[in-house]
Structures are given as C-alpha cells and as structure tokens.
Design goal:
Structural class: alpha/beta
Number of domains: 2
Order of helices and strands: EHEHEHEEEHEHHHHHHHHHHHHH
Strand content: 5-15%
Helix content: 40-55%
Number of helices: 17
Radius of gyration: 24 Å
Length: 402
Amino acid sequence: MARIITNLNELSKLFIDCCDKFQQISFVTAWAGKSNAVIDALYRNKNKIVHSSVGLQFYQTAPEFIYRFWDIEEIQYCKNNSTDIFHPKAYLFYKKDGLKWVVIIGSSNLTSGGFARNKECNVLLTSETDDEDIFNSVKTMIENYWQYSDLLTKEEFDEYKENANINKPYLKQLKKPVCPEINGLDWDGYIKRMADNQEEGVIDSAQNRIRLNLLDTAQRLFKKYKSLKDFPEEYAEAVVGLKRDYRGIDDWCFFGSMTAKGSFRSDFRNKFLFGLSDALDIIPHKGQVKFLQFEQFVKAVRKTTKYKDPITLCTRLLAMKRPDVFVCAAGRSSKNGKESTMSKLCSLLKLDRKTLSIDNYWDLIILNIQNSDWYQTDVDSIPEGEKKIYSYRAAMLDALYY
C-alpha cells in the first residue's frame, strides 16, 4: 500500500539507501541542485542511471550538477523549447529483472530544498506492497520524458551557465512569492477569482470577451506579419495602445493605453515605429522568453524613446505579443479617474507601486507569475472552455483586478 512521506530526513535516507541497493536508477525532475548527500549518492552510483531527464526552466538547475554529470549520457535535459512548465518529479529504483522496485513520486525536486529544507509531500510505492502496473507506468512515463529531452552541447551549457549566473540575484525572489494568496491559487482558484471580479460574476463576461477578442486579433497580426512595422498603420496604432474602438474591438485600451502619453501619438508615427518594431522582434513569438531577450528589448525601447522608465509602453507591447508570459503594468490613471492598471496590479500582488519599474518588473512580476500554481497547471487538465484564457493566462491576470 502506498505511503506518504513528509519527513525529509526519512526521504533523503530512503533515496540514498535505494541508490546503493538497487541495480538501476531512473528519474525525472524539474530541477537539480548542487552537491548534497542525495546527489552525492546518485553520483556514487552514476553507472546505474538510465533514461533520466532534468528540466532547465528559470535556470533553477545548478550548472554544477550538469557539469558533474556531463559524461553520463543517460541524463538528458529539457531545453525549454515550450512555454509549458516542465515540472514532473519521480524517482524509480529497480532490479534489472523488474521484480523488486521502489518509486518515489511527489513534489520534491532533486535539490537541497526538495530533500532537506522545504515543505514537501511524496508518495512511496514498492514492489512489496503495490501492483506491477505502477512500476511499468512510471518507467514508461520517465522514458517518454527522456525521449523529448536531449544532451547539451558545450555551447548550450556555456550559454546556460552564463544566463544562470545573470539570473542568480532573482532566484531568491522566485522562492519567496510576492503574494501567497495569488501565487498559491490553483487553476480553479484563478478562474474563480477572475469570475468574481466581473460585473456579471462569470468568466464569459462582456469585458472578458473584449479582452480575448483583442488578444486573438493581436496574435493573428503577429503571426501574419513579420514585424510591427509591417502591420497596417492603424492596426499598429491599435496594438501599441493608441486606439479604442477599431475593427470590431470595443476597446483596444484594455491591457494598457498610450493615449495619455503627451506627444507619443505623433512620435510613434514619425520617430518610434521602426525602433519599437525592431525591439519587439527580439522577443520570440513562440517558446521560452529569456531574461536576456527581455533585457535587450527594454534597452532598445529606451534607446528609441529616451524614456527613463518605459514600463507602460514595454509591458503593453510585451502583453500584446506574448500574453502567455507578460502582463501589462500601465502607470497612469485614466482620465475618468479610475485607478491605473499598475496600481491595481501592485495592490493585487502586495507590491509598493512607488518602487515598481521596468528594471525590476521581471523579478517582481514575471518570475513570480511563472512560479504560481495556476500558471504551472498542465494544459491537458484545463477544461476546453477555459483553454483560450490559459493560452493568454499572464496577460489575463488583468481580469482579476480590473
């Protein structure tokens, strides 16, 4: 019968004993850390490892782990070629004949946090108490993940190591959710919170239909045209936040507006379009958005506009191109006196509005969104009627507070 393990001392001892006792080791984990007793035991038994996969998202896997196990070709890596979060954790130990086995499956990554410090919950299954089908299904699952992983080239490792070092100052933020009541929401909680904020009290509200129609249209434009500068002129103005009612969209100024920004309208037409278009080209239309790409984008926007803190413009454009990754933080209150989207976003996430800027937007907002339970939900578990919201889930955070 399956047993729950929440004591990490017990979990670590079990893992180490199994490494030494069994002939084969196979695992999948979202992240792997630096040297510790568990990883030392795994390394000591490295020749037993088969079909194992490690995730690289958020640069949470330690470069030291990759380097240490470099020659073990049975450990491959999920290379972040999708915005879906690679998040499984399962450890399988077994005799070659498959008659004796142990499975640990649950919340623990192969890190010091996962096996020593965090609050974790794992399930222990064994050949002595559980059905053989469990062994076969877990083994097949891990092998399937391995099929979609790959070895790193030296160039890929060097790039990963560099990016991991750059992101190191932000990893502490990742481990400390800005707002536990938002970060801790599961998908159902996210949807309920969104519905409760609509006038009609339902997800399919008039405002949400506008939001989804707007994002659908923006995505079609980015798919059809190579760059923002290639958009039909009025569509480019709509996407950047300079129009309201246009081409079937009741209000293009959802997700932030640039209409109140002084001379921006004329500057956009006469000076900014090509520079902003080139900046936005740095951000890929699909796949992972790296911190370096975001940083280069912001630098290019600053160079084009000379704005000291272009948070409204940057986050508006990012939310239009990648609503699965970015949420708009528009800084100015509207003419009708309504609170700005930035103020409402900061209120929702318990942030100080006065300290938020484009320079800390990535670590205060984006990393914490991506570390949220609702954001990490597997798309296959999302009800069909909510999958459009899921595909735009970062930008649609707007619907929880505005």
